[in-house]
Design a protein that fits this description.
Blueprint lengths: L1 E7 L4 E9 L4 H12 L5 E5 L3 E4 L1 H16 L3 E5 L3 H9 L7 E3 L1 H8 L6
Parallel strand pairs: 2-3, 2-4, 3-5, 5-6
Antiparallel strand pairs: 1-2
C-alpha cells in the first residue's frame, strides 16, 4: 500500500510517496498527482525517502509524470532514492532522464525545509 502527502511551499511542491508503490495504487497516485499540479508549481520534488519498493507499472507512472512536467515546463526532481530503487533507475537508464537529488541539496537550492 502506498500513501501520498503533498506539501506546498513558495518555491516548490513536494510530492511524498510512502510505502509500496504497485499497480493497484496507480489510480490513487495519479489522482494525488493531479492535486499536486493543480496550482501549476514551477518545481515538484517527488520525495522517495519513505518509498519502500516499486513495480514496473508504477515506474511507468513516474515516466508519465516526467512527460507531463516537461510538457508544462515544470522542474521535476526525485529525492532520496533508496539503494534498491536507485539501482532500478540505473538499470532502466531512468537516471539519464530523471533529475535525482538529495533532500539536503534540494532544500538548499529552493530555500525550504521539508516537513518531518
Amino acid at each position: 500500500m502506498v500513501t501520498i502527502k503533498i506539501y506546498t511551499y513558495s518555491q516548490a511542491t513536494v510530492f511524498e510517496i510512502q510505502g509500496r508503490f504497485f499497480t493497484e495504487s496507480i489510480e490513487y497516485v495519479n489522482r494525488e498527482w493531479r492535486r499536486a499540479v493543480k496550482n501549476k508549481p514551477a518545481t515538484i520534488a517527488v520525495n522517495c525517502k519513505k518509498l519502500e519498493s516499486i513495480d514496473s507499472a508504477a515506474v511507468g507512472t513516474l515516466v508519465r509524470f516526467l512527460n507531463y512536467a516537461m510538457e508544462k515546463n515544470i522542474e521535476l526532481v526525485f529525492l532520496d532514492l533508496n539503494r534498491d530503487i536507485r539501482r532500478l533507475f540505473v538499470t532502466a537508464k531512468l537516471h539519464n532522464f530523471f533529475t535525482i537529488s538529495t533532500s539536503r541539496e534540494f532544500c538548499s537550492k529552493h530555500q525550504i525545509q521539508l516537513s518531518a
